[in-house]
Design goal:
Helix content is about 75%, strand content about 0%. It has helices at about 1-10, 15-30, 30-40, 45-65.
């Protein structure tokens, strides 16, 4: 694993730590969050509003996965 991320860093011309951070961000789903933020940036939501919408979406998805339904 160490050899692989070091080679990736060399190929991309970035520090080793950058490769590790990218991998952790991917694993935690943080890159997906950034892509969503970029996709909806035209809505001009505050960070707090965007976080609230994301939280509600996660909660709804979890409820659906448990077989629950949410009424609004």
């Amino acid at each position: 694993v160490v050899r692989a991320y070091r080679l990736a860093a060399i190929r991309q011309g970035v520090p080793d730590q950058t490769i590790i951070e990218r991998a952790v961000r991917d694993y935690l789903g943080l890159n997906a969050l950034s892509r969503l933020q970029n996709a909806f940036s035209h809505l001009n939501l505050s960070e707090q509003d965007a976080d609230q919408l994301a939280l509600e979406a996660v909660q709804e998805t979890r409820a659906e996965n448990r077989g629950e339904t949410r009424s609004k």
